[in-house]
Design brief:
The protein has 430 residues and is mainly alpha-helical. 67% of the residues lie in helices and 4% in strands. The chain contains 17 helices and 4 strands. Strands 1-2 form a two-stranded antiparallel sheet. Strands 3-4 form a two-stranded antiparallel sheet. A hairpin with a 5-residue loop joins strand 3 and strand 4 (415-420). The two termini are 24 Å apart.
């Protein structure tokens, strides 16, 4: 594999959105640009963290701490802070204390996401993230080492583990230093601790499935729930509800809506991993297959092929899944299996049902005609991949998606239409 030239991330060079500082913005001002408010708060928090790191050691600060800060600020949809914010606003909170706390906790969520992504790229041996060299690749290159050499690979991966650990430490510190009333602090602390452990459990089950050759459809959904639905959607909404002092019934319905939307998100992301257009998703198509990811899509295809006695389909999956040298022709065959077994259509329908459940449960939790509820409804539509109604955060609304078609060969050599999904059709490159 050829060497990737590093594009250096510079904390100092990361753009800072114009506008009032994090402490000056009221709830109404944040409503108009949630992402900008989170980024302003993030820059203030991270500047303090990097300054503290520089007091320990200049090289540590410049090479590792600064890279973690830049990585956190550079890219991503800020979906978790947006869910936290609109969850809080939909539950009626608008006071200055809740506003400041929500922005800081949004930064904490972004930091724990940085930890997850940095470690994920190490475990998956991914070389790119958001169109740039992954952190372990950049760290090796920054040290003057080839990331493809044994020495460079060992240094880059080891240093990236430390970078991810640092992001997690900073996330915890940010939560601990956020001003909160004692009852709210206890409630959020319980959610935060559960979320961290669930995230690790989901990642472990994902790795275990890769190592052992997959899992059942039920097991794949369990992994998706832990790794994505809880961590990415339900827990941020629960934190927002806690900041607003929402009652148990409201919180339970809101969390249920988040879990359904989060599962729909992951199912559509799995589809993107196979049928996505790399030019639009920003990541190579077929990586989930090459890595042997135990996705729900794969589990359904296998189960259906086994039930039908389709040895040809099973042979295609047996050759392709976990094969790092998967070719475009091989991937076309896998797409054909997913179409011919009906797995693609089944996963699409399940994602749609989950989206509908999310919308129904949200309506039981909050007033979706009110400002905050309407914004949250739009955001859940976006998360779950719906392209119809809903009104997402206007500053970061996702454009209406268009679908293109990719002509692929069926797994028995027959031509089969396999849809190529755009990144905005549901799912995310994270």
């Amino acid at each position: 594999m050829g060497r990737i030239e590093a594009v250096e991330h510079s904390f100092a060079a990361c753009p800072l959105p114009a506008g009032p500082g994090p402490s000056a913005a009221g709830a109404g001002a944040v409503d108009t640009d949630v992402v900008g408010a989170v980024l302003r708060t993030a820059r203030a928090v991270l500047a303090e963290r990097v300054a503290q790191a520089s007091e320990i050691d200049a090289s540590f600060s410049g090479e590792l701490a600064g890279r973690v800060a830049a990585f956190t600020l550079d890219g991503g949809k800020r979906m978790r802070p947006r869910l936290l914010w609109w969850g809080m606003r939909a539950c009626g909170a608008a006071d200055a204390g809740s506003t400041a706390a929500a922005l800081r906790l949004g930064v904490a969520l972004e930091l724990i996401q940085s930890c997850a992504l940095i470690h994920d790229d190490v475990m998956d041996r991914s070389r790119l993230r958001r169109g740039k060299p992954a952190v372990h690749i950049g760290l090796a290159t920054r040290a003057g080492l080839s990331p493809d050499s044994e020495r460079g690979s060992a240094f880059g991966t080891s240093a990236a583990v430390l970078a991810g650990d640092l992001a997690l430490v900073w996330a915890d510190d940010t939560v601990a230093e956020t001003a909160l009333p004692a009852p709210v602090r206890r409630r959020i602390g319980t959610i935060w601790r559960a979320m961290r452990t669930e995230m690790v459990a989901g990642q472990y089950l994902d790795l275990h499935g890769q190592a052992t050759g997959g899992s059942s459809a039920a097991g794949a959904l369990r992994t998706a729930c832990l790794k994505s639905a809880l961590y990415s959607v339900e827990r941020p909404l629960a934190i927002g509800a806690a900041l607003a002092g929402a009652d148990e019934r409201t919180t339970a319905a809101l969390c249920s809506a988040g879990r359904c939307a989060g599962l729909a998100f992951q199912l559509r992301d799995d589809l993107l991993g196979v049928f996505g257009d790399p030019g639009l998703t920003g990541k190579p198509s077929g990586d989930d297959i090459r890595e042997g990811k135990p996705t729900y899509l794969l589990a359904v295809a296998r189960t259906r092929a086994e039930a039908a006695g389709d040895e040809g389909a099973l042979a295609v999956l047996g050759r392709a899944v976990g094969n790092p040298d998967l070719t475009e022709d091989d991937l076309a065959d896998v797409r054909g299996v997913f179409e011919a077994t009906g797995a693609h259509a089944h996963v699409e329908r399940k994602a749609e049902r989950l989206r509908d459940q999310a919308v129904r449960r949200l309506g039981e939790a909050v007033d979706v005609e009110a400002h905050g509820g309407r914004q949250l409804l739009g955001l859940l539509h976006t998360v779950s991949g719906d392209r119809s109604d809903g009104s997402p955060d206007p500053a970061t609304a996702t454009a209406t998606a268009t679908a293109t078609a990719d002509e692929t060969r069926g797994h028995h050599g027959r031509a089969t239409k396999a849809r190529v999904l755009t990144a905005t059709e549901g799912g995310s490159t994270r």
